[in-house]
Design brief:
This protein has helices at 8-19, 23-35, 40-46, 51-63, 82-85, 87-103, 120-133, 144-159, 213-217, 233-244, 267-276; strands spanning 37-39, 67-70, 76-79, 114-117, 137-142, 163-168, 188-191, 199-203, 207-211, 224-227, 249-253, 262-264, 284-292, 298-310, 317-323, 326-331, 340-349. It is of the alpha+beta class.
């Protein structure tokens, strides 16, 4: 076996040489592999290789160690066990990967507030990164294939107490709730029709990625957008809450999971939880990190929650907090009717609050 310290350039050259097969070589090799032994004329009959090119083709395969030539009349090409034929390629690949890993420098992913990514593999890495980054709240819109890919990651976040709202699209391909345990990976799960529904993930309301289903299906002239822990992530979260989630059918739901303290990036999610809790459970208090909607000044508001409101279509939500200076109305991002635009809401029992 080649050493991991081998020159990556040499390893890459060896791998490229072994796998750099032209169309005729590929067809001839597969034909011989499928029959065990073929003459040149038999290969020509079973492929589109012109008769004059067959001899050169099988001799090239023999030089690469992929077939064995039996010098008879006619010449026979004998298949070689692929494990033997490609054994050195395994070693070369291992050496190549080791050498490249030694040179690999992980790219910085937070150099800008907004990044465009074109590679399908990069988009998938960012989706995984967003899922793992969530500390208390995660929303995802995934295809059934991506749900399968990230199932264990989502389950781990649920186990850690993260609230997960999951949208699966297209609905016709979503796993049957009688077969798939959605509540193992999500607090609430819904399905939405159509491949026009984008793929997205938002962690704690600010770190997010967004892409079309086409960009996930194959590499091409399509892009994904990443908001690198930027306040602009609320655009993706707001789109999810108001456009996608409200037009999807329910697959499974846990309802309010009970215990406080709890943190929220979405005021809609906060208000829905407050409305779902059982009566007689005592007073609740909130600490809100946000901005004054008139001055834009950053501020912190703390006090008892004395009122909540949620539109029937869930397009708007607000809560009222009784502070030492009076009642303050709190809305979500880009609030206009309330006093405060909330970035993060911390809810607990008792009168003394602080972010955890």
């Amino acid at each position: 076996m080649s050493s991991g310290d081998d020159d990556p350039r040499a390893a890459l050259a060896r791998v490229g040489e072994r796998f750099d097969l032209n169309e005729y070589e590929i067809d001839a090799y597969l034909a011989v592999l499928g029959h065990g032994q073929l003459s040149a004329s038999e290969i020509a009959d079973r492929t589109d290789i012109p008769q004059p090119r067959v001899y050169d083709t099988v001799r090239s395969l023999a030089e690469r160690g992929l077939v064995e030539l039996q010098e008879s009349r006619p010449i026979q090409a004998l298949a070689i066990d692929p494990e033997e034929a490609f054994g050195d390629a395994y070693d070369s690949l291992e050496a190549l990967v080791s050498g490249l890993e030694a040179r690999y420098t992980e790219p910085a992913r937070e150099t800008g507030a907004v990044s465009l990514v074109k590679s399908r593999s990069s988009i998938l890495r960012y989706i995984e990164d967003v899922i793992e980054a969530a500390e208390y709240e995660l929303v995802c819109s995934l295809t059934p294939g991506l749900l399968d890919r990230f199932e264990s990651k989502l389950a781990a976040q649920r186990e850690a107490g993260v609230t997960v709202e999951l949208l699966v699209t297209p609905a016709a391909e979503a796993p049957d709730p009688n077969v798939f345990d959605y509540l193992s990976v999500a607090t609430r799960a819904r399905a939405r029709r159509g491949i026009t529904t984008p793929v997205l993930a938002v962690a704690d309301g600010n770190y997010s990625t967004y892409a079309t289903q086409d960009a996930i299906a194959w590499d091409g002239d399509r892009y994904g957008v990443v908001f690198n822990r930027s306040a602009l992530g609320f655009l993706v979260s707001g789109f999810f809450n108001t456009v996608l989630w409200t037009t999807a059918r329910t697959l499974a739901r846990n309802g309010f999971e009970g215990a406080f303290p709890r943190r929220y990036a979405s005021i809609r999610r906060c208000v829905k939880n407050l409305a779902e809790r059982e009566e007689g459970q005592g007073d609740l208090y909130a600490t809100i990190e946000g901005r004054d909607i008139l001055s834009g000044e950053r501020l912190t508001v703390s006090g008892e929650i004395v009122g909540v409101s949620l539109a029937s279509d869930e397009q708007s939500a607000a809560l009222d907090v009784e502070t030492d200076e009076g009642t303050v109305s709190v809305g979500g991002r880009v609030a206009a009717l309330e006093d405060v635009e909330a970035y993060e809401i911390y809810v607990d029992r008792g009168g003394v609050l602080g972010n955890e």
